[in-house]
Amino acid sequence: MEGAYDFSGFLTIMAIAGGVMVVAGFLYRARQRLLVIGVQQAAVQIEGLLLRLADPAPHDVLVHAADDGRHDERWRADVRARTDDAVALGFVVLGDFEDRSLHKAMPEQALPIVRALRSDNGEIVLGITGREHQGAVVITVELGSEVRAAQNEDDVRFVETMAMGDMPMLGQGPRIDLEKLPSQTSISELVARQQTRIAAERAVAVLVPALTVDDVIQRYHRRVALTAAHRASLSALITHDELSALGGAEPAVIDMVYAELVRRAADRRSR
Question: What is the pTM of this model?
Answer without folding.
Answer: 0.81
